[in-house]
Structures are given as structure tokens and as C-alpha cells.
Amino acid sequence: MTHQTHAYHMVNPSPWPLTGAFSALLLTSGLVMWFHYNSFTILYIGLLTNMLTMYQWWRDIVREGTYQGHHTPIVQKGLRYGMILFIVSEIFFFAGFFWAFYHSSLVPTHDLGGCWPPTGITPLNPLEVPLLNTSVLLASGVSITWAHHSLMEGKRNSMNQALLITIILGVYFTALQTSEYLETSFSISDGIYGSTFFMATGFHGLHVIIGTSFLTVCLLRQFKFHFTSKHHFGFEAAAWYWHFVDVVWLFLYVSIYWWGS
Amino acid sequence: MYYKFSGFTQKLAGAWASEAYSPQGLKPVVSTEAPPIIFATPTKLTSSVTAYDYAGKNKVPELQKFFQKADGVPIHLKRGLPDQMLYRTTMALTVGGTIYCLIALYMASQPKNK
């Protein structure tokens, strides 16, 4: 008898955790080689092996869930816990950058002029592009909720449109933020203001790109009929991540762009 | 005590008695009443419109049969040749890259000759 008598998922042996771990070694060492010896080779190999690992690992998860049916309710519960814990870890990651910002801006040092923004820094006007960015992300939160409800109600066309709109808004945010970066009168090396600004908003922008990619994968899977009205955890995970990205932006906007100007 | 099913935790959660007036799971998906016809062309319900074929037909059932073949092949190689090639490329780059990296790190750790 080779059939299992439980509802858990015993995964096939997989090489991707190994290649993923080594790609992390190559990425970190590659950064060192780039910073100190002006060499890009190891970094490129690291990026390539990292992309290959992610593509194949997640492709396998789709095969195991959608094609082989291994994602029973109890397995899905584990996946939910996993995604939630991952998002919590990302919250802590951003908490560090917010701590640095508030530490520096609540008690500005003498060499900044004892004020925030520091002397000589002209911050961006929070009521211009940053406010537009806020409305773009809030609207994308609405459209992704529309997409989810359409999916649950079996409305295929609505779901496709709403998810596409969400992705377009995500790309629009990235484009706007890029143009803002080119417009700032200050750079990352302009004291603690520049450092806190670009580290916090920079990592947020990276997360927007990650979230947009995740949503795009969901769109492609939706085109291929992978999601059913009752079972679509991949999409829910992407939606949770997207809402997290949106909330981080709201904190960024209120703290750095608005209060900090 | 009234309960509702929480879609977030996938468990039962407490609810107020008022929830009983809008029970979960009984929401009509499509309106059973046809909207009033204003023009001569008949109104269409979503259920009666076939999905456009721009995305191709649903291949999931045949893919399910394909990936569930009991041939003992692990999931990352189940598709055969394309999977093998991608796996070998990834492994070669990983192993080769790691060796190159370890050599570079060894050299970088040597003291500079004065």
C-alpha cells in the first residue's frame, strides 16, 4: 500500500532550497566583490541563480497544488500561517527604518541645525505627487477587493479586469515614484535626512515591485483557469501582501512626507 | 451564541444574532430576476455568456491527469526534458558560481603584498 492515510503534504525531494541558499551566498559575496573590487561576475551569477530558484520553486508549488491536488484544507491552513508570519517579519523589517527616522527627526542634532527637515534640505511637497501616489495605492486596494469578490462570485471577466487595473495602478505608482526620485534636490548621501528618506521609501518601492510581480503571476494563473471560486490561496496571499505594501506607504506618507516636511 | 465562518482564519468565529438575518453562503451569485428590457435586444446574464477564447481553453484537467501519473518522477522533473535542462543549468551555475566565489573570497582574504 503506497497511498498516504493523512491529509498532509509530503513534498518530493527538491533541489531548490540548496540552490536558493547558495544563490544567497553568491548575492552577498557578489555585493562585496562589487563594492570593494569593482567586479560584477559573482553578483550576476547570484542574481541569475536566485531568479532561477524562485521560478522553479514556485512553479513546483503550483504543480503540487493546482495539478496534483496536494493543497488540502489543512495544508492551506499552513500556507496561510506561513504567509502571515512572513508579512509580520516584513513589518519588523520596516519598523527598523521607521525607528531610525523617528530617532533622527524627533531630536534633531546640532549639526543639522537643531530642526527637521535639517537646514539646507528642501523636502518634496506632500500635496503634490506623494498625495497622488497615496490615492493610486488606495484605489488599487479597492480594485483588488473588487477582483477578489468577482473571483468568489465566479465572475471571470470582472476578475480579470479588476486584477489588471490593480497591476496597472502598481506600475503607475512605481513610475511616479521613479520620476519623484529624479526630481529630489537631495540624494541618499545628503546627511541623515537623505539616508532615512531613501532607505525607507526605497525599500518600500522594491516591495511595490515585488507585489506587482506577484499580482502579475496571479493574473497569468487566472488566465489559465488555475483559480476556483472557493480555492485561490495564491491570489489571497498576493492580496494580503498588496494591502501590507499599501499600509506601509500610508505610514511613510504620514511620517516622512507629511509630518517630516 | 451565534457563529460565522471566518474566511481569514478558516475557522468559526463568534457573531451577533443579527448575522442570522444575512446568512453566509446564501447570497445569490447571479440575480434570478431579469432586468427590465428597455430596448429590443435581450439582456444577457453573465452565466449565459461564454467566456471569450482570447486566453485559450481550460487546460487544467488534462494537466492534472499529466502531473498525477504515478511514474515516480519528482515534481521538479515531471515535465521531462525542459525541466531537466533548466535544473541542470541552475545546478551548474550554482555549483560553478559557488566554487568561483570561494576562490575569490580566499584570494580576497590574503594580505596585500607590500
TrEMBL record, chain A:
Any one GO CC term of the record: respiratory chain complex IV
Location of the protein in the cell: Mitochondrion inner membrane
Alphabetically ordered keywords of this record: Membrane, Mitochondrion, Mitochondrion inner membrane, Translocase, Transmembrane, Transmembrane helix
Coarse class of the protein's main subcellular location: mitochondrion
Annotated Heme-copper oxidase subunit III family profile domain residues: 4-261
Reaction(s) catalysed by this chain's protein: 4 Fe(II)-[cytochrome c] + O2 + 8 H(+)(in) = 4 Fe(III)-[cytochrome c] + 2 H2O + 4 H(+)(out)
Membrane-traversing stretches: 16-35, 41-58, 79-102, 129-147, 159-177, 197-220, 240-260
Biological processes, Gene Ontology terms: mitochondrial electron transport, cytochrome c to oxygen; respiratory chain complex IV assembly
Entry-linked InterPro entries: Cyt_c/ubiquinol_Oxase_su3 (IPR024791), Cyt_c_oxase_su3_dom (IPR033945), Cyt_c_oxidase-like_su3 (IPR000298), Cyt_c_oxidase_su3-like_sf (IPR035973), Cyt_c_oxidase_su3_a-hlx (IPR013833)
Bilayer topology: Multi-pass membrane protein
Gene Ontology MF annotations: cytochrome-c oxidase activity
Family, similarity comment: Belongs to the cytochrome c oxidase subunit 3 family.
Summary of the function given for this chain in its UniProt record: Component of the cytochrome c oxidase, the last enzyme in the mitochondrial electron transport chain which drives oxidative phosphorylation. The respiratory chain contains 3 multisubunit complexes succinate dehydrogenase (complex II, CII), ubiquinol-cytochrome c oxidoreductase (cytochrome b-c1 complex, complex III, CIII) and cytochrome c oxidase (complex IV, CIV), that cooperate to transfer electrons derived from NADH and succinate to molecular oxygen, creating an electrochemical gradient over the inner membrane that drives transmembrane transport and the ATP synthase.
Protein name: Cytochrome c oxidase subunit 3
UniProtKB/TrEMBL annotation, chain B:
Topology of the protein relative to the lipid bilayer: Single-pass membrane protein
Principal location class: mitochondrion
Keywords in alphabetical order: Membrane, Mitochondrion, Mitochondrion inner membrane, Transit peptide, Transmembrane, Transmembrane helix
Entry superkingdom: Eukaryota
GO cellular component: mitochondrial inner membrane; respiratory chain complex IV
Residue intervals passing through the bilayer: 85-108
GO process terms (BP): mitochondrial electron transport, cytochrome c to oxygen; mitochondrial respirasome assembly; regulation of oxidative phosphorylation
Family annotation (Pfam families): COX7a
Location of this chain's protein in the cell: Mitochondrion inner membrane
Family: Belongs to the cytochrome c oxidase VIIa family.
UniProt-recorded name of the protein: Cytochrome c oxidase subunit 7A2-like, mitochondrial
Organism for this UniProt entry: Cricetulus griseus
